Amino acid sequence: MHSDGPTAANLREAFAREAQSALRSLYFARRADVEGRADVASLLRAIAEGEGGHGFGHLEFLEEVGDPLAGSGDTRGNLESALVETEANAEAYAGYAAEATREKLPDAADWFSTVAAAEHAHAAQLRRLLRSVEEDARQ
User: Fold this and answer.
1) Which domains does the chain have, with CATH numbers?
2) Phi, psi at 53, each rounded to 5°
């Protein structure tokens, strides 16, 4: 398998599908909890856990071919990969907020701005962790 071949592309798409499915299942579980349906919530959480396992499997195959989505296999490289993604997410959310503002959708714009700020905070945390890991490696 090549990192630019059809199977790698399918694995990246499959990962995205599993991640989306897992988060949706967790969201639906919360709704079921609110409605007093602990049985439904429990099953949905179990499904989310299974979807996460599938996603991990996809990432393992992607790691074998050096696909950047899977990180690098070590903590330092994985932190670098997470930082790049988080910074890209922050930039994307800022753009989404601007577009929502242009469309006169202030609630959506505020939401995207809030998420962009959270992503910036995550990036700062990742930078601190990365510096710590790099310092430990030098000692």
Assistant:
1) 6-70 (1.20.1260.10), 75-138 (1.20.1260.10)
2) -60, -40
The span from the CA of 46 to the CA of 63, in Å, is: 26
Token pair, residue 103, equals 């469309």
In this predicted structure, the answer to whether residue 2 has a pLDDT above a threshold of 80 is no
pLDDT of residue 4: 82
